[in-house]
Specification:
With 154 residues, the chain is mainly alpha-helical. The protein contains five helices and no strands.
Length: 154
Amino acid sequence: MNIRATRFGRPALLAALAAAAMLVTPPAVAQTKGLIAGVDQIPRILLRAGQVLGARGYDSYRHVIFPAALPSFVTGLKQGWAFAWRSLMAGELLVIIAAQQSIGVRLQFAREFSDAPGLLATMIVILFIGIVVDLVLFGTLDRAIRRRWGLLGS
């Protein structure tokens, strides 16, 4: 089967839809579970204190519930990122688009041609990208949340 012939045809559309579903569904589930777990773990006394101080309706969510659930939501975002990153790598290994050199394609070619140095270098690049995103994006979020809650020095 000619890959170029299916690039804009029905098989390519189905592959794109499958890849989109793989990238969107697991992270959304992880983020939702994180938010629900965070809301469920809010101490009752904190909700009552918010009510006593006049937080009702929208103000209750804005000033009490969402800030208290934020650490769990960020944890869900981290898990969602991990799921999306793994799904992206799996999708790139399964669907190869002609004339597109992606990380997954390079990994697959290095494996097929028994190119151990190329395989290790590609795996290190994948690891490096994951670590940089975790440290830069989620590390910044974690530090901001900890500083806000007084768990980290100024």
